[in-house]
Amino acid sequence: MEPNIVLKGSLQTIILKLLQDNGRMYGYEITKAVKELSLSKIVLTEAALYPTLHKLLDEDLLETTSEMMDGRLRKYYSLSNKGKKDVIKKVDVLKSSLDAVQLLLNNKLSYG
Questions:
Q1: What domain range is 51 assigned to?
Q2: How far is CA 92 from the centre of its chain?
Q3: Distances (CA, A) of 98 to 48, 55, 94, 104
Q4: What is the CATH number for 55?
Q5: Is 33 inside a domain boundary?
Q6: Secondary structure, 3-state, the chain
Q7: Is residue 84, in this structure, part of any structural domain at all?
Q8: Is residue 53 one of the residues assigned to a domain?
Q9: Per-residue tens of pLDDT for the chain, all 112 residues
Q10: Of 23, 44, 47, whose CA–CA distance to 33 is shortest?
Q11: How many domains does the chain have?
């Protein structure tokens, strides 16, 4: 099974929801959380993560702060005011879409 196919269309919403739940996170924390919460079924690569983070920043859904940690500059991402409003709507849309897919996969219709 290839769960990353589903991830591609859902990644923005997943990131926004993680930030809603955790306040602020840096890139590696996000990838680690996705892996842990999906029981290692979804592995988020940096190649997928960072373009998505940049897109969310461009759409003013995220804000960043930077801190020195162990001699390295670490960039933290958090929801902007717009992101706090949009995350609820995006999560609802994703849940509805996944529910519809479940219906399609689980029901057998007969046409006759």
A1: 4-104
A2: 13
A3: 21, 23, 6, 10
A4: 1.10.10.10
A5: yes
A6: CCCHHHHHHHHHHHHHHHHHHHCEEEHHHHHHHHHHHCCCCCCCCHHHHHHHHHHHHHCCCEEEEEEEECCEEEEEEEECHHHHHHHHHHHHHHHHHHHHHHHHHHCCCCCC
A7: yes
A8: yes
A9: 454 555 667 899 999 999 999 999 999 999 999 999 999 988 888 999 999 999 999 999 999 999 998 899 999 999 999 999 999 998 888 888 777 777 878 876 666 5
A10: 44
A11: 1
Please state, in angstroms and as integers, the Cα–Cα distance from residue 91 to each residue in 47, 70, 88, 107, 110, following that order: 23, 35, 5, 24, 32
The residues, any chain, with a CB within 8 Å of residue 93's CB and separated by 6 or more, are 13
Task: Give a yes or no: residue 46 inside a domain.
Answer: yes
Handedness of CA 80, 85, 86, 90 (dihedral sign): positive
Say what angle helices 27-37 and 4-22 make with each other, to 10 degrees.
Answer: 110
Q: Look at the pTM and tell me if it is higher than 0.70.
A: yes
Q: With contact defined as beta carbons under 8 Å apart, do 50 and 31 qualify? A: no
